[in-house]
Design a protein that fits this description.
The protein has 122 residues and is mainly α. The chain has a domain at 18-93: Ribosomal Protein L22, Chain A. The protein has three helices and two strands, in the order ααββα. Strands 1-2 form a two-stranded antiparallel ribbon. α2 packs antiparallel against α3 (73-93).
């Protein structure tokens, strides 16, 4: 039997923009949890900007090696909570050492249904 060496955390229907979450996910993917938390803390302090590579229409240039970027503070707070949750889940599973963020999947939240309509969505 193979041992499961992964820890997961899920944030469903978070009140953040899909555009911000896609760019933050690309920013932290492939990094260790400690490095991701440090970089996100730098963004919260507005010392470093999140580079926007996909949703970069009409964005101003930011200092550093990037073209357009932003400081999505509210979205970063939710991502910090998710990273802390992953670390807690890893400790409960008995995983020790450096944790690496392998997969981040940003999705749209569910849409509200309209009362009394034939087509319930949109």
């Amino acid at each position: 039997m193979t041992e499961n060496k992964t820890a997961t955390a899920r944030g469903t229907s978070l009140p953040i923009s899909l555009k911000h979450s896609v760019e933050i996910a690309n920013f932290i993917k492939g990094k260790s949890t400690e490095k991701a938390k440090k970089r996100l803390a730098n963004v919260l302090a507005q010392k470093e900007a999140i580079p926007y590579k996909r949703y970069n229409h009409d964005l101003s240039h930011k200092p550093g090696k990037m073209a357009g970027g932003r400081y999505p503070l509210k979205a970063i707070e939710h991502f910090m909570e998710l990273i802390e949750s992953v670390e807690a889940n890893a400790r409960n599973k008995g995983l020790v050492g450096e944790l690496k963020i392998i997969t981040v999947i940003p999705n749209n939240a569910g849409k509200a249904w309209h009362y009394g309509r034939k087509n319930k969505r949109f």
